[in-house]
Amino acid sequence: MSGPNDDNMSPHTQLSSHFFGDLLDSIIVDVASECHRIAKLGLDRNLEEEEEELRLSTQARVRAADPSNSGEANSKYVVDIFGQTHPPVANEIFECMNCGRSIMAGRFAPHLEKCMGKGRKARLKATRSSTAAQNRYSRGSPVSTYSPYSNSSSTNRLSNGTPGVAGEEYSNGTLEEP
Amino acid sequence: MRNSVNRPPTPDAAEDLGKEPMFQEIINIKLIESGEKERLMELLRERLIECGWKDEMKALCRAFIKKKGRNDVTVDDLVRVITPKGRASIPDYIKAELLQRIRAYLVQAAV
């Protein structure tokens, strides 16, 4: 085995080539495996089918962005990218936690405005219930005949002469601005 | 030869040495255990990426997959596709560099 150097050159060369081939084969298998994985997982956007999908999706996007296709104007229901349709107003019905009425989901926000008191009339509802007791004691008039809405009778009943802001009645003279 | 592993008697002609499978196995084990094989592989991988060889092979694979349809393809198919071209298209300077490194290893391992 341990002969002179030139004797070892030839087997060394052969051996080296052998191992080089070995390394190369491993790397080839790695590359093949990687390409195989990419193909199977559909990660390669350049394969034909992906091109087809791409074309279809751009078509769909164009159709969706097209203003003449505004769904609510032309047709009652718009079809989204999953093929689902949604009515323009959400139509699930549930119970309002404030007043207990059955409300449609799409109409819930406006309902809450009235129901909880952003608006003038809604605040009346609130003040009515809080001042109802005071009314009963100060006026002696039955609360049930009290109307929160503007009418001449309510202004007539104002005892303190404050200008009748239509529809509002006060037992203690404090003026609440609508 | 100072290895302590049992092996069949060496044939007389020194040129036959490289062909003995047992002998090659021993060297292979030495290569792996010393970590040199891993280093060589990384070096070769790097060189092949730099020179675009890997991209060529991937293009070959993609072309084949497009033709055959990606659901039918096996790793064996791809290996078979790229091996002939792969082995043939290694740039000379890369081959030379690797062979040189391997030979250097064999010398210092005193085989």
TrEMBL record, chain A:
Protein name, UniProt field: SAGA-associated factor 11
Broad class of the protein's primary localization: nucleus
Signal sequence annotation: none
Keyword Translocase: no
Organism: Hevea brasiliensis
Family note: Belongs to the SGF11 family.
Low complexity composition-biased segments: 141-156
Lineage, top ranks: Eukaryota, Viridiplantae, Streptophyta, Embryophyta, Tracheophyta
Lineage top rank: taxon: Eukaryota
Family annotation (Pfam families): Sgf11 (PF08209)
GO biological process: chromatin organization
GO CC annotation, single: SAGA-type complex
Keywords: Activator, Chromatin regulator, Metal-binding, Nucleus, Transcription, Transcription regulation, Zinc, Zinc-finger
Gene Ontology MF, one: zinc ion binding
Listed Polar residues bias regions: 127-138
Region span, Disordered: 123-178
Compartments (UniProt record): Nucleus
PANTHER family the UniProt entry points to: SAGA-ASSOCIATED FACTOR 11
